[in-house]
Amino acid sequence: MKRLVSLTLTQAAVILIVTATFAFAQEFTFVCDNPVQPGNSGGENLFNALLTNNSSAGESFILELDDSQIGDWTYAWCVTSVGCFPPGVYSVTVPLEIGLDDTIQVHINPDSTTQDQGSITVTAYPESSPGTAISITFTAYFGTAVEPGSPRVEPHSFTLSSAYPNPFNPSTTFSYSLNEIANVRVSVVNLAGQEVNSLYEGNQSPGSYQLTWDGRDARGIDLPSALYFIRLNSDDQQIFRKALKLK
After folding, report:
1. How far out from the chain centre does Cα 212 lie?
2. In the CATH scheme, what is the homologous superfamily, with its name and number, of domain 29-153?
3. What residues contact residue 74 under an 8 Å CB cut-off, 6+ apart?
4. pTM given for the model
């Protein structure tokens, strides 16, 4: 016999308030598809990273550059909305309105006659929340100085991105980051707080991960149009993100 579950307006409001509280903690992404590249001797290695404000308000982001691992190689870096900067400029403020993004470019000029590899690290964080920083290390290398499978992004916090697209049909994708080895569970819950699907469960190392939800429950049944929540659990931490399915 199926048990029907109903929500009062007060219960629904509590769920939405709790969700908003968790969502406020981390609402930006800073990603790069190819931060480790074989060196282009006599030329330039160009790295592109995307900073996105997924929060519900405009925010100023701080970008900090660390060139302590570049060695004798030359470099420059640029922010599309601000401009380009020579070596010696180590901090830039980037204002981003709701839902907007900006591209950060790092130009490294490698020289195989002086060293095997060089790296530039850029760290991004909201001005109002420095503790949620994400760092990306951009590396050019020659030979086997860097293994292709080496970790590329070093998240400084436990984060869950917004789902995209959102609203969605039939599927939506999101990413999350861990700053330490943890037992992780990623699931989808409905407005009643019931789990409708488990997307991942197990131990994971520090790093960034991506998952796609196909809008189905654990039995593979296509779920109806409704507001759902992506839930990320890790030991004593928990974050929710809204995902609106439309047909």
Report:
1. 14
2. Immunoglobulins (2.60.40.10)
3. 87, 108, 109
4. 0.53
Question: For 16-32, what is each residue's pLDDT tens digit?
Answer: 333 333 333 447 888 88
pLDDT digits (tens, 9 = 90+) for 212-224: 999 999 999 999 9
Q: Taking the domains of the chain in order of start, what are their residue ranges? A: 9-26+158-245, 29-153
The neighbouring-strand residues paired with 182 are 204
Distance of CA 151 to the CA centre of its chain: 15
Which of the following CATH numbers is that of domain 9-26+158-245: 3.30.300.30, 2.60.40.4070, 3.50.50.60, 1.20.81.30? Answer: 2.60.40.4070
> What is the dihedral angle through the alpha carbons of 51, 90, 46, 96, rounded to the nearest 10 degrees?
20
Longest distance between any two alpha carbons in the chain, whole Å = 75
Is a pLDDT exceeding 90 seen at residue 105?
Answer: yes
Q: Share the mean pLDDT of the chain.
A: 80
Cβ neighbour number for residue 39 with a 10 Å cutoff:
25
Residue type, position 169, single letter: N
